User: Which sequence fits this backbone?
């Protein structure tokens, strides 16, 4: 049979190895990544997060210890690079798929198990970046740094594109100061810095010249005279249609037009961003938002609530706002993250966005109270709120 019907083999078998990486074996999908105050990190499926109504009491989120709570929350796809910045100005690299996946209620993994970071050097910002191989992208994309004492610094992303196992110095931190936040810029943004005392300054990104990786930076805002005043948030805005949301430690917040914050030089005292009272407490966060965004608010007890920005109407800048989160006695808001309202938007929003910028939404049957009765009591008449306000002149300084 072989002699009658046999012919030569038409295929060949070669014993040659191929180049495979861990990345090739992992699906590129969006995940929620959280980092706690004590330095525990985890990634969780987007399906575990749900949308609730304004004024609700929240759902149980991170399984934190009594003295720990979720401090950073954002979305990254599994193939993205995580640039991790600490309060002492160090930066570490991590791939998103290297973060162990856990349930929303789990504690997570200590960051010390994943990067060579001292335990006492807390994480202050995490950026998820997809493209670190394009020379043009690296040279024309910048990082804007902000410290609690009001210092800002702008440096090309290219200076941070070469990882080291032990990390690198990202910024020189002056004595008594700490890094607060780092965000990505494209070169045409405006920067808004907000103080715990309730004031905010708005200036053009071009007012801060590019500096080297280890530079200390220049003054971005002048702190208030009250003891303990510090910067609580930085917003970098490229779209003038965005609005600004401010949130206080007792769960109050409000949404105002960007135009209500006049453009000044960096280093000034700024204008009033929110009328603070004993009921509202001090300012804890500022975010740029629109109707397509959701807001994730987390308190120190580990409860989270997710709100749609379409439920919150725009009011005047120097107003008290409405209750967003029912905060129990001896508790306060610990973290606020802006999230994407539509899951379809994740493909665009999840990549190359600053810390806390993208999440998908779901639906929830949990009960909530709307706090519409507080809107009339806490919010001045809109015509009065829109009237021009008189603010102390913004000063300039280096």
Assistant:
């Amino acid at each position: 049979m072989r002699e009658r019907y046999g012919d030569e083999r038409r295929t060949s078998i070669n014993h040659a190895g191929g180049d495979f990486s861990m990345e090739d074996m992992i699906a590129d999908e969006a995940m929620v990544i959280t980092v706690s105050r004590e330095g525990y990190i985890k990634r969780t499926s987007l399906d575990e997060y749900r949308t609730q109504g304004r004024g609700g009491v929240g759902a149980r989120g991170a399984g934190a210890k009594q003295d720990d709570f979720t401090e950073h929350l954002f979305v990254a796809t599994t193939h993205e690079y995580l640039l991790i910045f600490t309060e002492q100005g160090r930066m570490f690299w991590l791939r998103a798929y290297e973060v162990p996946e856990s349930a929303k209620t789990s504690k997570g993994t200590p960051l010390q198990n994943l990067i060579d970071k001292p335990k006492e050097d807390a994480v202050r910002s995490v950026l998820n970046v997809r493209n670190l191989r394009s020379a043009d992208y690296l040279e024309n994309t910048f990082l804007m740094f902000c410290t609690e004492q009001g210092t800002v610094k702008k440096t090309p992303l290219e200076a941070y594109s070469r990882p080291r196992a032990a990390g690198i110095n990202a910024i020189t931190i002056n004595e008594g100061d700490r890094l607060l936040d780092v965000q990505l810029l494209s070169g045409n943004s405006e920067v808004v810095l907000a103080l715990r005392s309730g004031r905010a300054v708005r200036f053009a990104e071009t007012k801060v010249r590019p500096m080297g990786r280890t530079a200390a930076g220049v003054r971005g805002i002048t702190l208030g005279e009250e003891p303990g005043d510090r910067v609580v948030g930085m917003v970098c805005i490229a779209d003038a249609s965005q609005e600004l949301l401010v949130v206080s430690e007792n769960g109050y917040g409000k949404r105002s037009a960007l135009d209500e914050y006049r453009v000044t030089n960096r280093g000034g005292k700024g204008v009033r961003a929110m009328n603070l009272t004993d009921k509202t407490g001090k300012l804890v966060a500022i975010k740029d938002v629109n109707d397509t965004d959701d807001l994730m608010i987390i308190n120190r007890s580990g409860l989270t609530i997710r709100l749609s920005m379409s439920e919150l109407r725009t009011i005047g800048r120097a107003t008290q706002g409405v209750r967003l989160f029912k905060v129990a006695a001896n508790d306060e808001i610990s973290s606020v993250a802006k999230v994407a309202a539509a899951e379809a938007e994740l493909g665009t929003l999840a990549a190359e966005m600053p810390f806390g910028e993208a999440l998908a939404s779901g639906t929830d049957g949990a009960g909530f109270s709307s706090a519409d009765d507080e809107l009339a009591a806490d919010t001045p008449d809109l015509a009065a709120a829109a009237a021009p306000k008189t603010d102390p002149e913004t000063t300039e300084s280096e």
Q: What stands out?
A: The radius of gyration is 23 Å. The mean pLDDT is 79. The first helix runs from residue 2 to 5. Helices lie at 2-5, 135-140, 346-349, 372-378, 382-386.
